[in-house]
Specification:
- The protein has 291 residues and is of the alpha+beta class.
- The protein is built from ten helices and 14 strands.
- The strands form four sheets. The protein has a five-stranded antiparallel sheet with strand order 4-5-10-6-7. A four-stranded antiparallel sheet has the order 11-12-13-14.
- A hairpin with a 4-residue loop joins strand 12 and strand 13.
- Helix 5 packs antiparallel against helix 8.
- The protein is globular and about 60 Å long.
- Bound molecules: flavin-adenine dinucleotide.
- Flavin-adenine dinucleotide binds next to strand 2, helix 2, helix 6, helix 7 and strand 10.
Length: 291
């Protein structure tokens, strides 16, 4: 590990000033579950690491607003998300995704903003947040900027944050009607591994279906089928299969990944997509989320 300076600011303004002053030489530290490994492996070589855990504006917490929207503080951990009653009831896919990140120890440290800012194509919370229409609240020298999550990811390790910006919060809007959702993923058999395929599905009464998927290309993708075909139990299998094919048409798994070959990933994407849809439809019918 290359030596670096360490700062622990106590205000958002101080944090933004550090980002401005040090430009591309600075890295933020939240839970550290990605950053520390990248520092150790010298994949990143900052001259200064800025620990954001004492910044009150980034504090962990999930707030339900009066209008039905939800706000996640940047340093909210996977453990908090997976256990939160409103998330379990209304954003089942997100609670399920948070609950499978790493191990108990990782989930106690890993933050939601860290998962998004690391911008791994395999980030498990990304598909769930995409189907629920999440927005990233970025703060920089000129104030706040709201970025729809689908416009946040570029490729592995790269987001549309600009120099001087950090993620302050993640917002989920109140849906016009209930979205029932589910998350599915596949990992290699042993160990706490990143997903070979990670998928979330959201269904609304009346049939629009959103499916988001990751680990099968350079960034997570969101696809929406407004037709109602996928949600209709009377749809013939061949018609449903054709819609699925168009939804998954842009999957482009790496041919050189150590986790799984492209054929396997593409096959699993279809299996897990169907399972996520079935589970989301069952939740829509029952009116329930996770217990
Ligand atoms: C053993 C192990 C298992 C794992 N399993 C999974 C898994 O199953 N699924 C999964 O999705 N991930 C997994 N991960 C990856 C990791 O735990 C998650 O990505 C985690 O959510 C990262 O959050 P963090 O707070 O630890 O981020 P950090 O490591 O602190 O930061 C990650 C990156 O985001 C930047 N960053 C952090 N906060 C902000 C902010 N507010 N604004 C701007 N930039 C910021 C940092 O500078 C850094 O570049 C695993 C990691 C390990 C070590």
């Amino acid at each position: 590990m290359q030596p670096f300076a360490y700062a622990r600011p106590e205000t958002l303004a101080e944090t933004v000033a550090l980002l401005e002053r040090h430009g591309s030489d600075v890295r933020l530290l939240a839970g550290g579950t990605d950053l520390v490994i990248n520092l150790r492996d010298r994949k990143v070589r900052p001259t200064i690491v800025v620990d954001v855990k004492r910044v009150p504006e980034l504090a962990p917490g999930i707030t339900a607003r009066g209008d039905g929207s939800l706000v996640f503080g940047a340093t909210t951990t996977m453990t908090e998300i997976a256990a939160h009653p409103v998330v379990r009831r209304d954003l089942a896919a997100l609670a399920e995704a948070a609950a499978v990140v790493g191990s108990v120890q990782i989930r106690n440290r890993a933050t939601l903003a860290g998962n998004l800012c690391n911008a791994s194509p395999a980030a498990d919370t990304a598909p769930a947040l995409l189907i629920h229409g999440a927005t990233v609240v970025a703060t920089g020298p000129t104030g706040d900027r709201r970025i729809p999550l689908d416009e946040f990811f570029v490729r592995s390790g790269v987001t549309t944050l600009v120099p001087g910006e950090l993620v302050r919060a993640i917002e989920i809007p109140a849906p016009a009607s209930r979205i029932a959702s589910a998350h599915q993923r596949r990992t290699r058999r042993r160990g706490h591994d990143l997903a070979s395929v990670t998928v979330a599905c959201g269904v609304r009464a009346g049939g629009p279906v959103s499916i988001a998927y990751g680990s099968v290309g350079p960034r997570p993708l969101l696809r929406i089928d407004p037709s109602g075909v996928l949600a209709d139990p009377a749809t013939p299998d061949d018609v449903r299969a054709a819609v699925f094919e168009s939804i998954f048409a842009d999957a482009s798994p790496s041919a050189t990944s150590m986790r799984a070959g492209p054929d396997y990933r593409l096959a699993m994407l279809r299996v897990l997509g169907r399972r996520a849809l079935e589970t989301a439809l069952a939740r829509l019918t029952s009116g329930e989320g996770l217990p």
